[in-house]
């Protein structure tokens, strides 16, 4: 039977929640998605003009559509996650985290050993985790070892073998790291009480262990067994110190999963914090590579399912920054203030740090990729038609109306190109008129580039608000460049970004990379302009001080500055030193004017 056309497949899709799958001409799965309404969601791929190139390519390849109807959208989310993991379609997001995580094992033995492992063996042993780093596992095991004397040998400590005297205590017993159950120096009940307390610690609950040790310490102190009481006191200090490091939220916040997301053009970073008994017992950040233009809500929902499955979380409440679709029996909380809000902000900070760490790695390992991502981000944030690979920024400098100058700095691929920086002396403006100065310098810059057939920038940044921007636009109009080069103004006070013909400014996120590049440009232009302005004023001040001496002309001033480098040194020079340079008659005039 012939495959029905795409139009026919689309027209017969149901309006129910479900999962859809796109296939190419070779019947290879391209993409899996979920929908609240299958017909509307799938039809949107074929009716919209997609800005993202990857989406356009995907739509061109689609030859057939399959779907699975499910009762609710949360069921669709779970099914979508399972299908993505099973088939790994080319155009679905990539969850970069398939490594084997470490666990802490409490071995199913008469005297259980406790050790780290990456393998799950179904022999009745207990496994706590998985933990996101071996460092966390080692810290926990060091804590347990410092508080509880446990055996490390792998002997079969059955009752019969111990009673027959098969084993002898080892060095660990003499170092007081083990109480010698192999020679029946420690009974099973006491050992298992320790194991029970260790279980609670691994769950994040230190309360019972601390209470037990404090009671023991009091008993030893009353019996005047002070050395043993001191040992217990040291163990309490170790536990309390570790608890302080982990308890950073309200103890009333119990058994909660916290999720946050930070994303850019290509990647999203979802942080997961697991809370138990008022303590953070796990933090993990998942990196998601985007394949299409997925929203943060879609990515966060997918990541929540993935992370909860992976870490076998059964908590019935989660904190998230915005509403997401999850399992029906899970309570969604969107914190607005207080301790709950602070723990969500901590999760976001972890996600941002992970992203920054990845950026720093990419800058070193693959600078081109970092540049490409930054350019794509700036294009999106500043609503540009093309990536701003070549940016120029202008700034005026004049102090109390003297020596008006301007500076133009050039950035290529987000980095300064200092050999292309230019200074300008303002020629046609009298007095401190920043608007007219900006008009002049922009006109001169691009008139020259046009005459010399040099490449024009994709973006011009004007240091100033609407007034400065309007002045620069006049020059672009005269040169016929308006609309051919994107131009924006940045006002200093609140970092508002102005666009031509739009009175309402754009406010970028203060931590946005796009804003940081624009601020770097603006600061660099200011620094470059101010340096030139100061040099010009200094030269003017020097000349005027020497010119004030009667009978001293320009040639004499030039000779003196060439020899002595500054007016200060001319003042400090002796009559003989001055005479060697300009002759005794003029030397006397200079010397006498300063003395």
Description:
A hairpin with a 3-residue loop joins strand 8 and strand 9. The radius of gyration is 36 Å and the shape is flat. The longest helix has 35 residues, at 513-547. It is an alpha+beta fold. The protein contains 20 helices and 20 strands. Residues 244-249 have low confidence and may be disordered. The protein has helices at residues 6-11, 38-47, 53-61, 73-87, 134-147, 159-163, 171-174, 188-202, 207-222, 226-246, 296-310, 338-365, 367-381, 434-451, 466-479, 513-547, 554-564, 567-572, 575-582, 584-594, and strands spanning 18-23, 29-35, 64-69, 94-96, 103-106, 114-117, 126-128, 256-263, 267-276, 279-289, 317-319, 331-333, 390-399, 402-412, 415-416, 422-425, 459-463, 486-490, 497-499, 502-506. Helix 4 crosses helix 11, helix 12 crosses helix 13 and helix 19 crosses helix 20 (584-594). The chain has 5 domains: 6-87, GIY-YIG endonuclease (3-Layer(aba) Sandwich), CATH 3.40.1440.10; 135-246, no CATH class; 256-363, Alpha-Beta Plaits, CATH 3.30.70; 374-535, UvrC, RNAse H endonuclease domain (Nucleotidyltransferase, domain 5, 2-Layer Sandwich), CATH 3.30.420.340; 549-593, no CATH class. Strands 13, 14, 15, 16, 17, 18, 19 and 20 form an 8-stranded mixed beta sheet that branches. Strands 4-10-9-8-11-12 form a 6-stranded mixed beta sheet. Helix content is 46%, strand content 19%. It starts with 5 loop residues before the first helix and ends with a helix.
